Model the fold of this input.
Amino acid sequence: MDPITNPYAPGAGQRPPELAGRDEQLKRFDVVLKRIVTGRPERSLVLTGLRGVGKTVLLNQLRSAAVRAKWGTGKLEARPDQGLRRPLSSALHQAVRELGHTQEDEVAHVLGVIKSFAQRDAKPGTKLREVWNPGIDAPAVKGRADSGDIEIDLVELFTDVGGLAADLGRGIAVFIDEMQDLGPEDVSAICAACHEMSQNGAPLIVVGAGLPHLPAVLSASKSYSERLFRYQRIDRLARAEADHALTAPAADEMAEYEQEALDALYFATGGYPYFIQAYGKAVWDQAPQSPIRVEDVRVASPEAESELAVGFFGSRYERATPGEREYLRAMADVAAGIAAKGEEELDDIESVPTAEVARVLDKKPQSLSPARDALLKKGLIYSAERGRIAFTVPHFGRYLREQT
Done:
C-alpha cells in the first residue's frame, strides 16, 4: 500500500478512526444546542474515559457542531500548574468574537469584563507594564469579575457573557479538555457558575472532558454537581465499530480487509481508537496489496507495538520516578495475579486493591501514599473507588510486564 496516502496517519482521511461509534453523542449534542437556544433547561456536558479512547477528538467534533449552529465557542486545556483565569479569558474572548459585533456597545462591555477578569490574575504590587494583556481591544471594566474571588468573579463573568449571547439569540459553549487537572478552587468556581447559568436559563454551557474520576472531582467540590452535568462515559469501540474504523478509511482508498485480519486487529487493539489508528497505519504501510491479510497484520504488529511503546506508553512511563515505577509494576503484577486465579480476564481488570499493591511490595500502605499521590497528580493512575486504583492508560499493565 502507498504510505503517502495512508488513511490512518494523523489528519488523513475525512473520518479519523477515533470517531467511529460516536454518532450517538454527536446527535445528542445537536439536541442540547437546540434546546438551550430555545430557552429550555439543559445541563452542561462532561465526557469521561481512559486515555486513548478519543475524548479530545470527540470534544473537537462537538465544538465543530456548536460552530455550525452559529454558537460562540472557545476551548482550553487545563494544566495542574496553571490557574483558570488566563486560559478561560482567551477562550471566552474567542467565543464572543465568534458571536459577531452586531451590538458593538454590548460586545465592548463584555470584552472589558473578560479583560478585567483576566488581569485580576496579577499578584498585588505587580507593575502595570507587567500585567498580562489578553489581547482584548477594549478597556477593562472595573468592579466587575475582578474581586479576586474566582467563584464570585466567574459567576459574574458567565452572567455577562451569557446575557450577551441571549440578546443575540445565540449560545456560548466553553470546551475544557483534561478537566480533572483544574485546581480545587477553579473546579468549585466552574460548578457555581454553571449552577447560576442553569438557574437563569442563560445560553452558556461548559463541555468538559477528562479521566474516569472527573465526576468524583466535581462531586467533591460541590455536592450538587451531579445535577449540573450530563455525564457520558467514552469507552472502547464495540467489534462492529472497530471494524468500521478500519474498513471505512480503507474503502476510501479502494482497499479491503480479510475477516481473519480484522479478527487479529481487534484482538491486538482491544477496540481502543488510538491503538486502532496505530495498528491501521502500520498494517497499511506493510501490506503489499488488497485485500489486507492476517499475515500482513503479523508482519506489521512489531512496528505498531514499537510506536506505542515509545510514544504512548514510554512517554508516560518516563515521567515516573524509580519509586513510582515500582508502584506501577506492582499494580501490573496484582492484576496478573487476579487473572491467574481465573477470577477475571486480564484485559477486563479495571482496578486493583491498594492493599494488594502494598502486599506485593512488602510495605505498609501508608508508606506508599507519596508515590501513589504523585502518580495520581501525574495522571498515570486514578482512584476507581475507595481502596482501589487503576491505570489511566489501557494495556499499560501489559506494557510494564513486557518491559520487566
Notes: The first helix runs from residue 23 to 37. Residues 13-18 have pLDDT under 50 and may be disordered.
